[in-house]
Amino acid sequence: MTITFVVFGKPMTQGSTRTVPVKDGKGGFRKRPDGRLMLIPIHDKGKELKAWRQEVASAARKAYSGPLLIGAVAVVFIFERPRPKGHYGTGRNAGTIKASAPSHPTTKPDTVKLARAVEDALTGVLWGDDAQVCGHELYKSWGDCYRLSVTVEALESQAPLLAQGSTSQADDSKSASRDEERHAAPAIEQSPEG
Question: pTM of the prediction?
Answer without folding.
Answer: 0.70
